## 1
Amino acid sequence: MTDMPMPDGGSDDDDLLPVLIVGGGPVGLTARALLERWGVRTLLVEKHAELSPFPRSRLVNVRSMEIFRGLGLADGIADAAFAPRYGCIRFRDTLHDRDFARAAMIGVDAPVPESPVIGVVTSQDRLEPTLLGAARAPMRFGTELVALDQGRGAESVVASLVDHRTGAETRVRARYVLATDGANSTVRRLLGIGTAGPGALGDFTTVVFDADLDRWCAERPAGLYFTTHGLFAPVYPEGGWAWFAPTPEGAASADWPALVSRALGSGADVPVDVVRVQHWVMNAFVAERLRHGRILLAGDAAHAMPITGGLGMNTGLSDVHNLCWKLAGVLNGWADPGLLETYEAERHPVAQRTLQQAVANAQLMMRVQSRRREQLQAGGAAPDRVELPWTERFFAQLGLLLGVTYRSTAVLADGDADGDTSPGTEPSDSGTDYVLTAEPGHRMPHLWLTDHRSTLDALGEWFSLLTPDPARWEGQAAAAPWPLRVETLPGEHADVCGLGPHGALLVRPDGHIAARWRDHPASDSALHHVLASVTGSTPG
C-alpha cells in the first residue's frame, strides 16, 4: 500500500486530513457542504462510480428544508420539486380507481406557521446533484473504504481505500471519519457495532418506467398512490413514474413491463416502458452506538427507517446538522473533543423515537390495505371510502420534526446559565404535536424578525445571542473568543420566548437553544461561562 496524497498535496503530519466522509448520498453530501461552510477541509469517497440514478427517497421535510435554507439551497431544491398540491398520499384499489382515502403530508401540501419554509416532494436523484454542487471539497467516486486502523489513544484514523477503476489500494490519515455509507455500512461492520430493532422487513423492488397516466392522476395529483398492487409515485414534474412492490419470485428473469401493467389494473391498457429496476431491502434498526473513538456514524449507517413517512433521509440530515458544528469547533480549537460525546447523547434517542414512528406508520398503512381487501372480498357492499385507523394528525409529525429536544452537556437547563451547569432532565416524547417553546434544548422557534427574515435566518456558522436588549450584551459578546453574533429580538417576541426586557437566548449553530437568561445576566462573565460550559473549552 502507498500513502494517498492529501487533497492539497503531500501526506505528512502537516497535511493530516481533518475529516474523511465515507458515502456520497444526501447525508454525506450535506455534511461536506456544512463542513466547508465552517472552513473544515474534507475528502468524500463514494464506492459507486456516480450519484444514484434511482429516485429512492421522495420527501424533503420542513426541517430539512430549514437546513437547506441555511445553506442557500432551499429555493433551488423547491424549484426542481413538485408543486405543493402533490403533498399527499392517495389510497386506491388500482391506480385508475377513485380514491378511497387520502392523507395530507403536513408541512408539504401547504405552508405551516411554524416554519419559514415548506417541505417538498422530490426525487433523490434530483436532489443529490444540487448537494454535490453546494461545495468544492474533493469527492472521489469509485473509491471504496476497505479497512480502518484506529489505535488506542491515536490522534488519527488510517483508512485503506480501493480505487475500482485502477485497482490501486491507498491510505489516507484523517483526524475524524464520518460514516454515511448506508444501511449496509462497511464502517459499522468493520467496527463491530451491532443494531437493535425489527431488522429486515422484506425484499422490495423499484421499477422506474414511462407511461401516460395523466387521465387518472393529472386532476388528482399526489406524491404517492397506495394501491392493493403496490405503490406508484411520479418521479419528476416533467414525467416518469416509479412502482414500489415486494420483490417477486424469479425476479432475475421477470417480465417487468408485464408486471407493472398488471399492477396498474386490468382496465388500464397503457403501454409501459421500463427504464430501470432496483432491488433493495427495507430495514428498520438503530445502531447500538453512533461513535467509536474518532469514527462517527450518521444517516442510514446509524439508523435505517421504513420508507413510510419519509423519515429516513431527513433524520440523517439532522444528524450531520447536529454533528458538523461540533466537529468544526474541535478542529478549529474553540471546543474540547469531549463536545463530540454530545452527538450520540442527543441524536441516539431521536433515532429510536423516529424508528418507532416509522414502524407505526408502516403498520397503519398496511392495515388500511388489509381493511380495504376485506371490504372488496365482501362484494358490492364495500363503501367508496374507508374509515382510516388513524387521525389526520397522526401523519402531521411536526412534533417529531420541529419539536426535537436535546439534553446533554451542550445544553444548560433554565436557571443553570447563572449557576449550576448540569444538564436538564430527560424530555418527554412530543409525539406528533408541535408546541412552540424557547426552552433550552429545543429548536429555536421560527419568528419573523422582518417581513422576509426569520429568527432561523439569523443562525449560521456561529452561536447567536437573541435579545430585546442587545446593548446590555454586546460587551460580553465582543469579549467572547467563540464565533458569536448578537441579534435583536423584537420586543413582541420576548414574551413568546419567556424573556424579560433584558433577557437573552443563546442559540447553537444547529438552531437549538443552548441556554436562556430570562432577564439580565447575574454577572458580566455569564455569557463567557456558558459558552465555555457548552463547548467544554476556553479558547484564546
Note: The radius of gyration is 24 Å.
## 2
Amino acid sequence: MPASAKHASEIHNDPGPENVAALFDSPLNTGTGRGLSLQKQLLARLKHAILEGRLPAGARLPASRTLAEDLAVSRNTVSIVYDQLAAEGFIVPHRLGTRVAQLSLDPRVAEEAARQSARRRSVEDAVVAKTTSADVAHQTPEPHVGDSPAAAPSASRRVQRLPATSHAARANESPLPFVPGVPSLTRFPASTWRRTLERVMREAQPRHYHYGDPLGEPALREAIAEHLRISRGVRCDASQVVITEGAHEALILCVRLLTDPGDTVWMEDPGYRGAKAAFHASDVRLQAMRVDDEGIVIPPGAWAASTPRLVYVTPSHQYPLGSVLSASRRLDLIAQARHYGTWILEDDYDSEFRHQGEPIAAMQGMVPDAPVVYVGTFSKTMFPALRLGFLILPTQLAAQTRDALDELLRGGHRFEQLALADFIRSGQFARHLGRMRRLYRERQTALREALAEHFDPAYAVIGERCGLHLTVRLDPAFHDKTIVATALREGMGPRALSSFALDPQPADNGLVIGYGDTDAARIPSLIKRLAAIVATQGKVGR
C-alpha cells in the first residue's frame, strides 16, 4: 500500500477510507493537450475533498515528498499546491505535519455534502484515471463553494436583486446590423468632437484634474437645461440637472433616492430591458402594466390596490412598441401620482429623432411642478461610449436630495463634460441632430420598403414616427426568439419582441429592428436574408 494511502486510512472521522485513499494514490492525468495541468488537477482534487468533508478539519496531509512519489509527480508540484492551499486558508502548515484547517462550515452541512458527492466520486476518479486531457478541461473544473446546494446554500442561492432577465446578446465592438438603439457611428462628426475636446484639454487648469461637482460640470448642466427648455419643453434650470454615466445609472440612482425596500414600481410591458434590470437589481416589487396604442394602461382600481412609489414610462416614443402616451393619459398619470405621492420616471431616450409631425413635448413640462423625474442620455444623440446621461429633478426634490447626491456621486469625466457643453453652446450639437434626423429618416424608409418587398408572412410595422428602430409584429407561428437566434448566427442583430415583456402575451411576438447604424444601401439585401430566416422558421414551426 502506498505510504499516503496508508496514512489516509488513519484519518479520524473519515467518511470513507477507500475514497480518501483515492485522493492520494489515484494517478493524475498526464496526457498532452489542453487539459488541466498536474498542479491544477491536484489543487482541484484537494479543494473538493476539503469542501465536501472528505478531508475533515484536523486531518493530516501526506508529506510533500511522499505524495509526490505516490502520484508520480515532482515534489515541487505538490509543494506549490500545498502553498496555494495554505495561502487560501484551506490547510495549516506545521513542522509536525500539514493539517486541514477548521473552516466555518456547519458539520451537518459537510456531512450531507459528503453524501451528495458520493455519486460524483466514481465519475471523478474515472476522469482522473482515464479521460484525455481535453476531457479533463471540461469535466474537472476548478472547485468552488456552491458546487452542491447542500454544501453551501448561501453561495449557490441566486441573489434576488440580480437581474432576472436573460440577455439577448452581448454588445460587440463592431455592432451587427439591425441592433436597436445604436446610432450611426460612422457619421458622427469625430473630427469636430476631437478638436473640441483637445481645446478643452489645452485650456484646462490643474483644478480640472481633480474631482468636479458631484452633480456635474456647471457649464454642461446649464447647456442641457437651455437645450431642453427650447427643444423638449422641459421646465428646469441648471440647479435641477444631475449628470450621470448614462441613462442606466440615472435609473439606478432614482431607485436609490426614491424607494425603500418592498416599494412597488410600475413599468410598461413590454418595456426597456435596462430599466427592468435596474429595478430587478433593487429590493422593489416590480409590476407590469400593459401598453396599447396610447401608451401605458393603468387598470381601474390599481392605484388604490397597489400604490406605486415609482412609475416608469417612455411617453414620447414607447420602447419598444413606439406608441405615444396620449395627453389625457399623461395628465391623469400626473394627477394620480400627485394624489398618491408617486414619482413618475420619464425616460426620453430618443425623441430628438422625430420623423413624422411635430416633436412630442416632454410630459415633465405639461404642468408646473409635475412629480416627474426626467431621464435623458447622449448615447443616442452622440455615441454610446461617451457614457453621459442626466436627470432633471423637480425643484423641491433637487433641494432635498442634494446632500445625498454629494455622497453618492463623484464628479468625473470632466473634460468630456466641458467639451460637450461647448459642443452644445456652439450649435454643433443642433446641426448634428439635424443631419442625423435626415439620415435616420432615409434609413427607415429603406427598411420599410424592404419589408414590403421581401416579407411574405402577415406582419405589422409599428413605431415608425420616431427613433432608431421599427418593431415588426409577427404571427405567433413565427417564433421570434428562434428567428433572432438564427439571425445572430448569420451576422444580424434584431431583438425578439417577446424578450422585452415581463409577462409575455401572444401579441408580444415580433422583431425589433434597429436601423440607426445600418447603411440604407445594405438594408434590402439584409432584409431579404432575414425574411428567408422567418419563412424557414415558420415552415418548421408548422
Note: The two ends are 65 Å apart (CA to CA).
